[in-house]
Design a protein that fits this description.
globular, 775 residues, 26% strand, seven-stranded parallel β-sheet
Length: 775
């Protein structure tokens, strides 16, 4: 959402400006400015990327807005998603999407290679038992198949999931409800079944399939009256200066241009803090049986993909002989060296002296190799879910799970003696209502260094582990594979922070292809492995946004801490402390909190730390700023004493003008606008009486971001300059009458259309504004 207000700045010069306030909600669909269709052949809807609302080819009520602008907000170094849907009015064959560089008015550029556009593939998966669109405030893990152990009763449903460059890679048969993957045999394409009910039927159940997706987006076909969703991911360079960047996504078919979508990215003036102490995930690694001598190359690609999605230290598999090589690959991918969670060695539950010594020797070797690569801590895995009564794969059902669990104590002590730590999955106290009710904390909490806790996070459980100096991470809420990006964003984002968990470690990065090849569970996939990398999914993108939510929050917490330690108090950051407390105390799922709005609020407060002012309505002495008037509301123009220049005649006719104003120049015009008195002497009255209706744009030599630090906080909002551009002549002429009629009622028009939410807020402030179209 963009808000335009009038602000008075007084130093040695009198300057009046209207700055554009970015409240961080530009990535939210509700704030997308509506526009007429960009072509007669299709409608284009801007939609929320991270949502559990499914958009299928035949969805008629698309949850978005028709628009020609796709807004995004991101910090340097961040990956940010956006999405749009094309609804074809007629058959479209071979639609190509071409994107330009992102450019700012000051000349800075983000290359188009940082913009990734993929098509969202809708295919058949099992619905899953207990599926809910809104994640509940309890353990949520609907990965069990609809009818467990009854393949004939699987409930196949169409779901959007895969993010592809080649839409034809997967063929979907809606009559038979089957998925087919295209492979190459003897140089010829062939489609093989991957939705069979039996393992090994076609390609169902394969850990990787012998296919590769295209390296870039290929043309797509869209049938009349059907939808095709596209996913946009922008990687903002860590060195990108703050500002507004725009690009064009052009739509073309053979010999015809169908219009363009404006991509508008706001780069924030700060970098993000780290997320959790533990940002991990279960991971088996690529199979040498599948990849052969390319297994190390595939491992490196998967490491880069996980790191790009916020997983900084996944569980590390593999034999000791591969450990050093794998650690170097992890490090090259950007992963931190704080700790490794290693499953190449397991504790087991040996009691014999020779076996315990063998375990110590292995752990010492792991610690030695890890230390040579800068790793500070090594964690060794115990017996998985030892308190569980269910039959584990390859194991008999335990008769005494407590005995089995506690029998690990000698082995865990041996790990500690060798310089290692212990981690393993388990349950919180009270999870079971039998003799196992003490949970991991009550039975082995004194010696278990990291608890990978199943189910919904509980702050009380976290407090027990922290009291012992140990850590706790979450898994199984849900496990991977549920095609619900908003669920993962919530449950592995702010929900973990609310309950003081040290991070997430759910199960698992990827399993096999096809939900229907095993009798019990949906396939646990955040990604689908191919022969040269992975195919991302919408749930994987949601997981990354959850990690980013925590990064934004931690950035705010750092700002609050600095504000509290400063002699010069920042009232907005102090106010933010109360907001953070309210956020902490209210479960994100119980309140059904809007994560986009929460992030916007957090961004508002973070931006408050970038003010460096002597007081309201002032600019620091010695700063000589120049301002350009871009537009003026019709009502104000009629009452203003303006010179009859060619420029104003041009403006009266609906054309754009550029009128330079230095210091107190044209002060008479400003006073004539009405009831403002002597602006030079009454800045506070001006701030309280916002009736100006004039839009100005700040310009100065040097980085525009530096100007932001000199602007005031108005009504506890951070005000920053943004290029507005020329007013479109045609649009201005068409809308002049509408603006005249609505301005007096305080209705806000931002850029190309009306923002009803902001209009309601502005009615209270009696602020008049003008329709402005970015040029």
């Amino acid at each position: 959402m963009k808000r335009t207000v009038a602000v008075f700045a007084a130093a040695s010069l009198v300057v009046v400006l209207t700055a554009t306030v970015q409240l961080g909600r530009a990535s939210m669909v509700d704030d997308t400015v509506g526009a007429k269709p960009i072509t007669k052949k299709f409608l284009l809807y801007v939609v929320r990327p991270i949502t559990n609302k499914r958009i299928l080819p035949n969805t008629e009520a698309i949850p978005g807005k028709i628009s020609d602008t796709l807004p995004m907000v991101a910090a340097p170094g961040e990956y940010e998603p956006a999405s749009f849907v094309i609804r074809a009015k007629e058959d479209i064959e071979g639609l190509k999407l071409e994107v330009t560089d992102l450019k700012a008015d000051d000349g800075h550029t983000i290359r188009s290679s940082n913009i990734d556009i993929k098509v969202v593939k809708v295919w058949y998966q099992d619905e899953g038992r207990g599926l809910q669109e809104q994640p509940p405030a309890q353990t949520y893990n609907p990965i069990v198949l609809t009818y467990r152990n009854k393949p004939s009763k699987y409930k196949k449903v169409l779901v959007p999931e895969l993010l592809l460059n080649d839409d034809s890679l997967i063929k979907v048969d809606t009559e038979e409800k089957h998925n087919y993957v295209r492979v190459s045999e003897a140089g010829k394409p062939k489609h093989l079944l991957i939705s069979g009910d039996k393992e090994g039927e076609g390609m169902a159940g394969s850990p990787a399939i012998p296919v590769t997706d295209s390296p870039s987006l290929l043309p797509v076909d869209i049938r009349q009256n059907t939808n095709k969703q596209f996913w946009v991911t922008v990687k903002v360079p860590a060195s990108a200066p703050a500002g507004i960047y725009t690009a064009r996504v052009e739509f073309k078919t053979e010999g015809e241009s169908l219009g363009a979508l404006k991509l508008q990215l706001r780069v924030l003036p700060f970098k993000l803090a780290e997320a959790y102490d533990i940002s991990s995930m279960y991971y088996y690694g690529p199979s040498s049986k599948v990849y052969g001598d390319r297994v190390t190359e595939q491992f490196g690609k998967e490491m880069k993909n996980m790191y790009a999605h916020g997983v900084a230290n996944p569980i590390l598999p593999g034999p000791l002989g591969k450990l050093e090589e794998y650690l170097k690959i992890r490090k090259a991918a950007g992963m931190n060296g704080k700790a490794i969670f290693y499953t190449g060695v397991h504790t087991g539950n040996p009691t014999a002296a020779d076996k315990l010594q063998s375990l110590r020797d292995k752990v010492k070797k792991v610690v030695e190799i890890a230390g040579s690569q800068g790793v500070e801590e090594v964690y060794i895995y115990g017996i998985d879910e030892a308190l569980c009564l269910r039959k584990r794969l390859g194991h008999k059902t335990p008769k005494d799970p407590i005995k089995r669990f506690t029998s690990q104590r000698p082995a865990w002590e041996a790990v500690h003696e060798a310089g290692g730590n212990v981690f393993v999955a388990g349950v919180r106290a009270g999870h079971y209502r039998d003799e196992r009710s003490p949970g991991n904390i009550g039975l082995m909490g004194d010696i278990q260094d990291l608890m990978v806790c199943h189910g919904y996070p509980h702050g009380e459980e976290a407090a027990k582990w922290h009291a012992k100096g140990h850590k706790i991470a979450c898994y199984g809420n849900p496990q991977s594979g549920v095609e619900q990006p908003d669920t993962y964003r919530r449950n592995y984002g702010l929900l973990l922070w609310q309950n003081d968990y040290d991070g997430g470690m759910t199960y698992i990065y990827h399993w096999n292809w096809g939900d229907f090849c095993r009798p019990t569970y949906k396939q646990h996939n955040m990604v689908y492995p191919t022969m040269d990398g992975v195919i991302d999914t919408i749930q994987w993108e949601g997981y990354r946004e959850g990690v980013d939510d925590v990064k934004y929050l931690n950035t705010l917490l750092e700002a609050i801490e600095k504000a509290e330690g400063s002699q010069k108090k920042n009232p907005t950051l102090l106010e933010a402390k109360q907001y953070v407390k309210q956020l902490k105390d209210n479960d994100i799922n119980e309140t059904k909190g809007d994560l986009g709005a929460i992030r916007s609020k957090v961004i508002d407060y973070i931006l408050a730390r970038y003010t460096d002012l002597e007081g309201p309505g002032t600019i620091r002495p010695g700063r000589r700023l120049q301002w350009w008037i871009r537009s003026m509301s019709p009502d104000v123009r009629r009452r203003a004493s303006r010179p009859a220049s060619d420029e104003f005649k041009k403006w009266a006719a609906g054309g754009p003008i550029e009128w330079r104003m230095l210091g107190a120049h044209r002060l008479a015009l400003l006073v004539a606008i009405g009831r403002l008195g002597n602006l030079a002497q009454q800045p506070q009255q001006f701030l309280a009486n916002l009736r100006l209706g004039v839009h100005l744009q700040a310009t100065r030599r040097g980085r525009p971001g530096r100007i932001a630090a000199q602007l005031v906080l108005l009504r506890r909002r951070q005000i920053t300059p943004e290029p507005v551009g020329h007013v479109d002549i045609e649009a201005r002429a068409q809308r002049a009458g509408l603006a005249d009629g609505q301005a007096r009622r305080g209705i806000q028009f931002a850029r190309d259309g009306r923002d009803s939410q902001l209009a309601k807020a502005l009615l209270t402030n009696s602020t008049r504004t003008e329709v402005v179209r970015g040029g």
